[in-house]
Amino acid sequence: MTLEPPPSSEVSNSSSFQTVKISSPVKGKTPHNRISDGFLNNDLAEVLSGIKGASSNDPHKDQELLSRSLRRAVWHGKPDTYVCYDESLVHWCLDHGAIAEDQQPDPYKNIPLLEMVAGRNTVDIFRLLRSRGAQLGPRTLHRAVGAAAGSSDDNERLPVRMAMVKYLVDELGLDVNAMDTEGTKPNHWGTPLCYAAQVAHGGEEVVRFLLDRGADPAIKDCFNFADAIWWSERKRNAPLAELLRGWKMQKSQDRE
Length: 256
What we know:
- It holds the Pfam family Ank.
- By secondary structure, the chain is mainly α.
- About 50% of the residues lie in helices and about 0% in strands.
């Protein structure tokens, strides 16, 4: 595997890979530790050093390593560092052979890459990976909604998470009433609204958006047991439960 730029101990503040140099290996860390820690700390030099140390003469193994590194870059995305290293790392992994297309055919055993992006990263990264072959998973919108509901108290994260939800619904046209699975599976809660209702507080903004786009809080989960209203009451999220009950009551009155 050929890595550029050449080894050095310097790292610039630029997001361009032309100005990032690979640092010397850290004693006591395996290459995979360096890769993982580098993504966690947004340390591009450590990531590249780890990938170089783990590379082999087998192109298939190197490609698998890059693909795993790509997933780590997506997983460790943070709103305040998107424009620094994370996006560049995603581009770098793709440009050096990482496969965005999910290799595990069962989305319930291995989280599809775009589901990870939907809940943790930006619309730009989502578009990029989709253009490189990453497929939508059955819970892409569900994970985005859950992340938005859980970001209600974070003024930096919430706009990023809501932008993802709006993109998935308004631009990609994902169904706001889609179930998260066919048949019955544990830890599957039903529609995107049911995922929004998993939070103990907050969630009103994303719920209002979904209701405005036609989401129905009365649709029950795959066990035909719990709907979004039930979940909000279970979580003791009184404002959210009141919002959902009020919407349901208004719809009943409109039909009369």
